[in-house]
Design a protein that fits this description.
The longest helix is centred in the N-terminal third of the chain and has 29 residues. The chain has a domain of 250 residues. Helices cover 68% and strands 2% of the residues. Helix 6 packs antiparallel against helix 9. The protein starts with a helix and ends in a 22-residue tail after the last helix. Strands 1-2 form a two-stranded antiparallel ribbon. The protein is mainly α.
């Protein structure tokens, strides 16, 4: 009996593998020949880096029935190198600047760049914001329900803040997209100079902390304008090496000599955050990431010639905004369901203060992925209206985000 069940399971696995292989070949064959697979792979890696980073450094600690946000980076500063790997927003802005510049240039070439700015912008932002309505609707209902049920206000605030925190990124991204016709030829040194002077006033002259919010636009404008220059063919592999080495050296010098935080993400309770708003150290680190991305584009393009690799990249790009907007919700849903267990679960509800928590959190990552898959199944349709459509029609030409 056991042998028969094992044979059936093996046959089922083989059939599933054949179907996945057939799907991968179908996606590969239906992709337009001119598709920039290397650029799509960079976008996919940037999104997955952000998601993985949040899942690793975001802890919800159960404290007497109240959920509070915590971070292993506060209790274990030696984990700071994790933020160097997973804080990949600069790459996303680099690709965004590249794609928006190409798209606007194409619109101008077809005679719609000046008279059709609004339709061009609406098309650019449509897919970006379409999934946002679902997130806002769900968390408005959840937040209202928690308040009416008498939930602790601190818990409600923690959950809603985490769920909606990705929206700041989209607002900045949308603003830079709208400014593309004005900034597409702006030299990256100009916004970099703004970041430098803002930090000099903030930290060197004890200026007001609120001045740092100028860097929310200027800091991300640096990789955006680099992407625009890349789209114009002004960045080469040599440029990538210079950015990688120079940016890494500058970031290391600022951390070691100027005492900027070592973590490239925010740490609860820290006096200064490198990310919120961006500091000169974060921007320098972003330059290094942009240089690495330029160097990786061609190897990634070769890697995605494999149908299986390209199918994974294509499907990630199809759901990029859904993944980004719902990954924190997936983490919180798993955490909330875990409260039904008898006592706090290690790596899920316990304080992130040791190796045990890190190992336990790594074991939870596949569970978070399952939760995200459920969110994708429920809400992914809001994004899939424009992009890669995998089905009878194969892979449709996507509107780049």
């Amino acid at each position: 009996m056991r042998e028969r069940l094992s044979t059936q399971r093996l046959s089922t696995l083989r059939l599933s593998a054949k179907r996945l292989s057939a799907l991968a070949r179908h996606v590969d064959a239906a992709t337009p020949p001119g598709r920039d697979r290397g650029l799509d792979a960079l976008r996919a890696l940037a999104i997955l880096g952000v998601v993985g980073g949040h899942w690793l450094v975001t802890a919800l600690v159960s404290d007497g029935g109240v959920l509070r946000a915590a971070s292993p980076l506060r209790h274990q500063p030696w984990l700071a190198p994790l933020s160097w790997i997973f804080q990949t927003l600069a790459v996303f802005f680099l690709v965004g600047g590249y794609v928006a510049t190409k798209s606007h240039a194409s619109a101008r070439a077809h005679g719609t760049g000046r008279t059709g700015y609004r339709p061009w912008l609406a098309a650019r932002l449509g897919r970006l914001f379409r999934p946002v309505a679902a997130v806002l609707a769900l968390w408005t209902a959840v937040g209202t329900g928690l308040v009416l049920s008498g939930a602790d206000p601190d818990t409600v605030h923690t959950l809603v803040k985490l769920a909606l925190s990705p929206l700041w990124f989209l607002l900045v991204f949308a603003g830079l997209t709208a400014l593309t016709p004005l900034v597409r030829r702006l030299h990256p040194l100009w916004p970099l100079a703004v970041v430098l002077h803002v930090d000099l006033v903030r930290f060197g002259l004890d200026g007001p902390a609120r001045l740092g919010w100028v860097n929310l636009a200027a800091g991300w404008l640096v990789p955006w304008t680099l992407g625009a220059a890349w789209a114009r063919g002004e960045l080469t592999r040599r440029s990538g090496r210079v950015l990688l080495v120079g940016g890494a050296a500058a970031a290391a010098g600022l951390v070691l000599l100027a005492r900027y935080p070592a973590s490239m993400v925010g740490v609860p309770g820290a006096a200064v955050s490198n990310l919120n708003p961006p500091t000169l150290a974060a921007v320098a680190f972003g330059l290094a990431q942009c240089g690495l991305a330029i160097l990786l584009r061609e190897p990634l393009a070769r890697w995605t010639r494999s149908p299986a690799a390209w199918a994974a990249v294509a499907l990630t790009n199809l759901s990029a905004m859904t993944i980004f907007l719902w990954h924190q919700t997936a983490l919180m849903a798993v955490t909330a369901l875990g409260l039904l267990a008898d006592g706090p679960l290690p790596g899920l509800h316990t304080a992130p203060d040791g190796w045990g928590w890190v190992l336990a959190r790594l074991a939870w990552l596949p569970v978070f992925a399952v939760g995200l898959a459920v969110c994708w199944a429920a809400f992914g349709t809001y994004e899939r209206g424009g992009g890669f459509g995998v089905g009878a029609g194969g892979v449709r030409r996507a509107r780049r985000v």
